[in-house]
Amino acid sequence: QVQLVESGGGLVQAGGSLTLSCAASGNIFRGNIMGWYRQALGKQRELVATMTSGGNTNYADSVKGRFTISRDNAKNIVYLHMNSLKPEDTAVYYCNLQNPLSSISWYDYWGQGTQVTVSS
User: Fold this and answer.
1) Cα–Cα distance between 66 and 91 in angstroms, integer?
2) Which has the closest alpha carbon to 10: 119, 84, 106?
3) What is the pLDDT of residues 42-88, one digit of tens each?
4) Left, alpha or beta for 114 (phi > 0: left; psi -120 to 50: alpha)?
5) CA nearest 98: which of 21, 9, 24?
6) At 68, phi and psi to the nearest 5?
């Protein structure tokens, strides 16, 4: 089992910055992927950014150039540095960890979510 604890959400004005953190603990496998997803009111959950333990990243087009994902593998912490925030970034942000079960299958773990609200 894996536990994910997020922090850092809040209210910010458009153009501002926030950094989210997520600390993972428990049975974390080598080769895992950690990342962030978000879900706005009335919409489906969507990928924001992910990062492999080897440092490969993937970003949603809507956040490229504004958000940066990073991680501390020794501490099993993943960060999301959000700059130039827009009202459309308002959502509940969820931390995700994917443990590899095989070369083609993964097991997902989710945090409880943290609210990010961007005012115009």
Assistant:
1) 16
2) 119
3) 999 999 999 999 999 999 999 999 999 999 999 999 999 999 999 99
4) beta
5) 24
6) -135, 130
